[in-house]
Design brief:
40% of the residues lie in helices and 13% in strands. The chain is of the alpha/beta class. It has two domains: 128 residues, Alpha-Beta Complex (Aspartate Aminotransferase, domain 1), CATH 3.90.1150; 238 residues, Type I PLP-dependent aspartate aminotransferase-like (Major domain) (Aspartate Aminotransferase, domain 2), CATH 3.40.640.10. The strands form three sheets. The chain has a seven-stranded mixed sheet with strand order 2-8-7-6-5-3-4, with helices on both faces. It has a three-stranded antiparallel sheet with strand order 9-12-11. Strands 1-10 form a two-stranded parallel sheet. The protein is globular. The structure holds 4'-deoxy-4'-aminopyridoxal-5'-phosphate.
């Protein structure tokens, strides 16, 4: 029997598919493609981390863990967050191990939003933020970081967007897709807006380890902010563990208890094997971090220089592994640029508008790929631009 109506909820029907996915599907069946499109490291998870997962299986650790995650892992996360982010959290009551940073963002929003509550979402940003606010029953209010400020949101822009319904500011620094990172002073100004209007900061700090020039500051470490920050991070980027699906979220006990209620019903617990792997990574496996950072730094410098040389103006991003060159000089919009580049030169970049309207005029080029591939990609992009 043919169904006449859709069973999908209206708000799901109205969700747009991710602009990144749509673009990758276009490469199916193409050969000799160089992808600067992916948002994941080209490194394989360190061997000792992989081995720990294998050993956990050999030892028969195949059942559920506590809802919040293995206590030992939460203790190791607390130590790591204390050392690197300079904030202390109680592993028993303030840390939840999640299925990637993705789940952490989802349960954080679902735990804090009542229908109609507003969240200031700083764009350009990772594709999931606004849809997850909507799915949690809230209303995303887009605050477009300005290109004149290298896409660093200004406190006055947030101030202008606050209403009586505003509950939180959602921010990611270092940022995907722009690579921009707020300075400590800029973070303090944003914190000032949160304090003045009694807002939470939902801080996605998944790129915290991938910072190349300055020291890293966490939002939760800014004076007075620990109690109003939900700190999201994970293992995907710095430990090259995207496929393991493991992240964590640190927040004051009341918010953690709220998130845990959702997590326990929806997820139960993150993968046990992945938790044992991450535990090893936190205890012993971060020794190659400096090497990884150095390698990304070299690649960043090469890509930024090359893009600027060919007339695609590009500021030097402070973190993550993305560059965000301006392509307006080509006269094309970001989608046409990316489509033609793919078909004429077989290089994948992601149109800036996939990350919000304010990303129009830009494309995201990831440099999480080998120097050899990057050289060839830059050669092809130069050929493309020269022949326009
Ligand atoms: N936040 C940002 C800013 C990201 O770039 C990504 C992944 N690309 C995520 C969250 C999701 O990470 P995870 O794999 O931990 O779910």
């Amino acid at each position: 029997m043919v169904l006449k109506t859709s069973y999908l909820a209206n708000h799901v029907q109205n969700l747009k598919p991710s602009g990144i996915r749509k673009f990758f599907d276009a490469t199916a069946g193409m050969t000799d493609v160089i992808s600067l499109g992916v948002g994941e490291p080209d490194f394989v998870t360190p061997w000792n981390v992989r081995e720990a997962a294998i050993l956990s299986l050999e030892d028969g650790h195949t059942s559920y863990t506590a809802n919040a995650g293995l206590l030992e892992l939460r203790e190791a996360i607390a130590k790591y967050v204390d050392d690197y982010y300079c904030v202390s959290y109680d592993p028993a009551h303030e840390i939840t191990v999640t299925v990637g940073a993705s789940e952490a963002i989802d349960i954080a929003l679902r735990a804090i939003l009542d229908p109609g509550d507003e969240v200031l979402v700083v764009e350009p940003c990772f594709v999931s933020y606004a849809p997850l606010v909507t799915l949690a029953g809230g209303t995303p209010v887009i605050v477009a970081a300005e290109k004149e400020n290298d896409f660093k949101v200004q406190a006055r822009q947030l101030e202008d967007a606050v209403t009586e319904r505003t509950k939180a500011i959602m921010i990611c620094s270092p940022n995907n897709p722009t690579g921009s990172m707020l300075s400590k002073e800029e973070m303090e100004q944003v914190a000032g807006v949160a304090e003045k209007h009694d807002l939470l900061i939902l801080s996605d700090e998944i790129y915290a380890e991938l910072v190349y020039d300055d020291l890293y500051t966490s939002f939760a470490a800014i004076d007075g902010m620990r109690e109003r920050t939900i700190l999201v991070s994970g293992f995907s980027k710095d430990m090259a563990m995207t496929g393991w699906r493991l992240g964590f979220v640190c927040a004051p006990a009341e918010i953690t208890q709220g998130m845990l209620k959702i997590h326990q019903y929806a997820i139960m617990c993150a993968s046990t094997m992945a938790q044992y792997a991450a535990l090893e990574g936190l205890r012993n496996g971060r020794s190659d971090m400096a090497e990884m950072r150095k390698s990304y730094r070299l690649r960043r410098n090469f890509v930024v220089e090359s893009l600027n040389e060919m007339g695609l103006s590009c500021y030097k991003p402070e973190g993550a592994f993305y560059t965000f060159p301006n392509i307006e000089s080509t006269g094309m919009d970001s989608e046409s640029f990316a489509k033609r580049l793919l078909h004429e030169e077989r290089v994948v970049v992601v149109p800036g508008n996939a990350f919000g309207d304010s990303g129009e005029g830009y494309v995201r080029c990831s440099y999480a790929t080998s120097m050899h591939q990057l050289r060839e990609a830059m050669k092809r992009i130069r050929h493309f631009v020269d022949n326009l």
